[in-house]
Amino acid sequence: MFNYDKFNWKNLILPLSIFVLFSALFLDFSYFSDNLNNRSLAQEQVFLEEALEKNITTCYCIEGFYPPSLDYIIKEYGFSYNANKFYIDYTFIADNLRPHIIVLQK
Length: 106
What we know:
This protein is mainly alpha-helical. It has one domain. 58% of the residues lie in helices and 11% in strands. It is built from two helices and two strands; from the N terminus they run H-H-E-E. The protein has a two-stranded antiparallel ribbon. It starts with 9 loop residues before the first helix and ends with a strand.
């Protein structure tokens, strides 16, 4: 049987405090990592929107009309994006009217 009278509780203080410290650090690190990942994805979305706008403007300046589809920009101007992360809604209006674009995170 275990004798509780002779057990020294002071021996548990150091290991227990180390365990609590590492647990707190791990939780803080995982929160920081998730927060950093979300900021990175938002910044990637902004860069994607800017690149798409530049390609639309370049097409209009060179060819005299706005690109009729997203596939046209991809094929003719080498535009690429990660379709697993983002959805692009490209609405063509007319040759002389700027298309409406929306970039969303999946």
